[in-house]
Amino acid sequence: MSDTKKFLYINRKAPYGTIYAWESLEVVLIGAAFEQDVSLAFMDDGVYQLMKGQDTSAIGMKNFSPTYAALGDYEITKIFVEKESLEERGLTLDDLQHLVWEDEDEDWAEKDSIRLVSRAELGDVMAEQDVLFNF
Amino acid sequence: MSMLHLVNKSPYENNNVSTASSTMRSDDVMLLIEDAVYAAVKGGKASTMLEGHKVSVLGPDLAARGIAEDKLASDVDVIDYAGFVDLVESNDKVQSWL
Amino acid sequence: MKLTIQINEGPYQHQSADSAYFFAKAALDKGHEIFRIFFYHDGVNNGTRLTTPPQDDRNIVSRWTELAQEHDIDMVLCVAAAQRRGIVDDGEAERNGKDATNIAPGFRISGLGQLVEGGIQSDRLVVFGD
């Protein structure tokens, strides 16, 4: 399949303060239909997108954080979270949503989607891609 | 598999130059455009983040901001828009640090 | 080389539309092909013909129109982003019951799939934004 490319969507902005996070997620969902080899990366303020317990009821905006939990259903199973960005912000993986996907080849076993990587490792992941999407 | 890292924000405003420089691999190139050109000024605190990397700066954005080429850190290449296109072509992909 | 260019910011507020324009022109001058220019987020504001800058300033919108017409470039405004920001063509006006249109010549409104397709079909995706 020479027309399958490796796509990495790089998320570096916090949600709600600006629309970038939400509109990037819209591209990811639409893009899933194109059957490319898709990964997502969250670094810098982008890690805030995955925070647990988001409640937007008092700011009049749609809470789109549940959508991340549905990414597994779109066959998006590789979600890279950068370790340094979490640590700088006083966060750990426990502060983030637990994202999983079901592996059809292993009797629908539930597997973690999030892979914690260092900045250097994320640089290697970026280097392996064909196309980098930035928002 | 080299990458062009495109940065457009002043290093004195946000961390994009720093994030880009710490993510770059040895074959990669950084191109400073728009307000990121301030990162290349010699003696500026941010210029140390460029050390050891291949760095180009967009000449039209330097000129617009009144930065003469002799104010730049010595190992920085000044290019025009045609050179920008060449960098996009000579690297396998482009990462825009927005 | 075949390029797709993505523009995330509106005209005038940020330099990104200007940088993208000069980059596109330089690429065309060198004989490269622009597969598509995709306007996303506030970038859809590059496509309103109602823009009226002062006479001594550049007209970013008509500059895009001229570039597209001269080089037959596909310029796409994201439909979801355009609907949010009130950029309307005939089809959108009819579908959403609007009493006017404001899309500039040379632009069309279409889905996000056009950006993804740009990523698949092009040798390089270059993103300009804030």
Relevant terms:
heterotrimer; B: alpha/beta; Hypothetical Protein Ychn, Chain: A; five-stranded parallel sheet; 3 helices; 5 strands; globular; C: 130 residues; 5 helices; Sulphur_relay_TusC/DsrF (chain A)
Map the helices and strands.
The complex is a heterotrimer of chains A (135), B (98) and C (130).
Chain A: E1 6-11, H1 20-31, E2 37-42, H2 66-69, E3 79-82, H3 83-88, E4 100-103, E5 109-112, E6 114-117, H4 119-127, E7 131-134
Parallel strand pairs in A: 1-2, 1-7, 2-3, 3-6
Antiparallel strand pairs in A: 4-5
Chain B: E1 3-7, H1 16-23, E2 29-32, E3 54-58, H2 59-64, E4 76-79, H3 81-90, E5 93-97
Parallel strand pairs in B: 1-2, 1-5, 2-3, 3-4
Chain C: E1 2-7, H1 16-29, E2 33-39, H2 60-71, E3 75-78, H3 79-85, H4 90-96, E4 107-110, H5 113-121, E5 124-128
Parallel strand pairs in C: 1-2, 1-5, 2-3, 3-4
Family (chain A): Belongs to the DsrF/TusC family.
InterPro entries (chain A): DsrEFH-like (IPR027396), Sulphur_relay_DsrE/F-like (IPR003787), Sulphur_relay_TusC/DsrF (IPR017462)
Pfam family, one (chain A): DsrE
Unreliable stretches of chain A: none
- The name of the CATH topology of chain A is Hypothetical Protein Ychn, Chain: A
Task: Sketch the topology of chain A as an H/E string, one letter per element.
Answer: EHEHEHEEEHE
Into how many domains do the coordinates of chain B divide?
1
Strand order of the largest sheet of chain B: 4-3-2-1-5
Count of helical regions of chain A: 4
Look up the CATH topology of chain B. Hypothetical Protein Ychn, Chain: A
Largest sheet of chain A: 5 strands, parallel
Order of SSEs of chain B: EHEEHEHE
Q: Which stretches of chain B are poorly predicted, pLDDT < 50 over at least 5 residues? A: none
Kindly describe this structure:
- The complex is a heterotrimer of chains A (135), B (98) and C (130).
- Chain A is an alpha/beta fold.
- Chain A has a single domain (6-134), classed as Hypothetical Protein Ychn, Chain: A, CATH 3.40.1260.
- Chain A has helices at 20-31, 66-69, 83-88, 119-127, and strands at residues 6-11, 37-42, 79-82, 100-103, 109-112, 114-117, 131-134.
- The two termini of chain B are 22 Å apart.
- Chain C has one domain (2-128): DsrEFH-like (Hypothetical Protein Ychn, Chain: A).
- Chain C is 38% helix and 20% strand.
- Chain C contains five helices and five strands.
- The B-C interface holds B 6, 8, 33-35, 60, 80-82, 84-86, 88-89, 93-94, 96, 98 and C 1, 3, 8, 15-16, 19, 22-23, 25-27, 29-30, 32, 124-130.
- Chain A: Belongs to the DsrF/TusC family.
